[in-house]
What does this fold into?
Amino acid sequence: MKKIIYILSFIVLLLGSSSCSDFLQKDPTSSPSESIFWQSKSDFDSGLAACYSLVYSWPGVMSEIISCFDNLTDNSICQYDEDTYGKTKTIALGDLTSNTSGFVSYMYNDCYRGIARTNLVMGKLSAYTGTEMTDSEKSRMMAECKALRGYYYSWLYLCYRQVPLVTKTLDLNDMYQEKAPRSEIYNQIMSDYNDAIKNLPDEVYSNSDVSGHMTVSAVKVLKARILLNDAYDDSGNATNTANLDSVVSILTSIKGYSLASSMRDNFVRDKQSSSSEIIFSVRYLEPNITNSIDLRFGAWATDQVTRDFINEFEFTDGKKWGESSMTPIVNDSLIESGSNTNALARAERAKLFVNRDPRLKQTVSQSNLLIFSDKGYEDANATNDGSQTHFFMTKLVQPTTTVPNYSTVSDADVVIIRYAEVLLSIAEAENELNGPDATVYNAVNAVRTRSGMPALPENLTKEEMRSRIRHEWRVEFAFEGQRYFQLKRWKLMGTLVNGAEDPAIPTYIKVFKDAFYYWPIPQTEIDKANGVLTQDPNYK
It folds into this structure.
C-alpha cells in the first residue's frame, strides 16, 4: 500500500503527473500551509480538480492508452514493448508477474493516488465551517468525490482479486493496509455510487455546467458495469438475476441522451462538445491539457489490428465473411506477406473494406495508409510507420492529410461512457433474463441501424441473440477499453485469446492462463508494506 501522509502538500496534490514518491514528502516551504488552505471555495475546487487529474496521469491508463487493453484480446497486437502502452505486447505473451510494469503497476498506483485525494478532500469538506460554500455546493462536491472514489475502486476491483480498502486519509500509524475481501470493495463501490447518484446534478453531459464532471447518468452506467460484471459466475454464465434486473432498471432510467448520427462522430474533436451520445469523457483542451493519441496510434500504428477482428465485421447485407454473397475472392498470401508499400498488396487489402459494415472503415486503416471515413479525408492516404499485421486502429485518431508528428497538438477528448453502451448493456442483461424480447431487439437494432446496418432477423433464440449482442459489443466498442473486461466477464479469454495468432505474424502467439483473470499486486507495494500486504496466491 502506498505511503500517504496526512500533511500532503497542496502542490503535490495538484500535480496529477507527479511520481509516486511525491506522496512521501512533507510540506515544502513553497507550498500553502494546512492552516491557510482549505478556507475558500476555490481551494476546494482546486482539490477536486486534483482528484480528477489522475485520469490524465502519464501514460494515461484510464485515458490516452485505454485502447491498448484491446492488445490483450483478439482484436489487436501491440507493436511496441513499452510501459507507454501498458506493457501489453509482453503481457499478451504470458509474461505477467508481480514485477510486470505497464498496466499492472500504473493502474494500482494511479487508482490509490486518486483514492487518497478524494479521501483528503472529503475529510476537509466534512470539517469545513466556512461560509463561502452553500450546503448544496458542499453536497455536490462530496458526491463528485464519492463518484470518483467509486470509479477508482471499480478499476481495482476489475483488475485485481483483492486490494486494501481505504476510506480515510492515512497517517504514519496506519499507512500500510492489508487486503480487504472482494465483498467489502464491492459494497464500498456500490455505497459510493449510490450516494453520488442521490446528490449529483441530473443533467446531460453536453451542458456546460457539468461537462467534464461526473453526473447522475455517468455514475448509473459505472454502477451498471460492476453489476453486469458480477452477474456472471466463474463459468461465464449469467446466474445473478438480481444484478441483471438492476442493470435494466438503472439504465432504462437514463434520459436525455441519444445516439449520434454516426459512431465516428463521438471521436472527432469538433463534434464532441455537442454530442448527444457522450455521457462522460476525459476532457482535453490545448494548450495546457493535450494528449499524444494522434502520434502514438496514427503515426506509429501502435495498435496493430488482427485479421480476425477484420473478419468480425458483417457485410452491408448483415451476413458474415464467407456467408455473404458480397464476400470477395482475395489473395490471402499477398494480404499477409506483401509489404505495406506494395501497391498490389494494398489493393488486395482494400478489398476487405468494400461493402462492409461502415464501422470497419471508421475503426481501421490498412498497410501504412492513414485513410479515414470522414468526409474529405477518404483518400488522404498519408503514410505512417505501418503495421506488421498490415492493419491498424484509427478510430481515436483525428482526420488528417499529413502524418502526425511531435509538433502535432492533439486535444480530442477520450470517451469513457456513451449512450450506445447503455443500449447494449440493457440488451445483454434483458436477453439473459428473459430472452430476445422487444426490449432487446429495439436496443440492438438502434445501434446497428445508426451505422446503416440492417435490423436483426426475427425469431432469434436466446443463444443466437447472445452471439449477436457480443458481436455488436466487439465492433461498436473496439479500442474503448471494453473488450478485455467483457471477455473476462464471459470467461472467454482462454477460448478466444489463449493461442491466438495473426497470419501476418505467426510467431507471435498469445498466452492466457486462468491465473491471469486477476493481476498480481505490484511487488514494490508488497515489499514496502512490511508483511501487512500479501500477494495474490496465483503469483506467489
Notes: The first strand starts at residue 76 and ends at 78. Residues 293-412 form one domain. The radius of gyration is 23 Å.
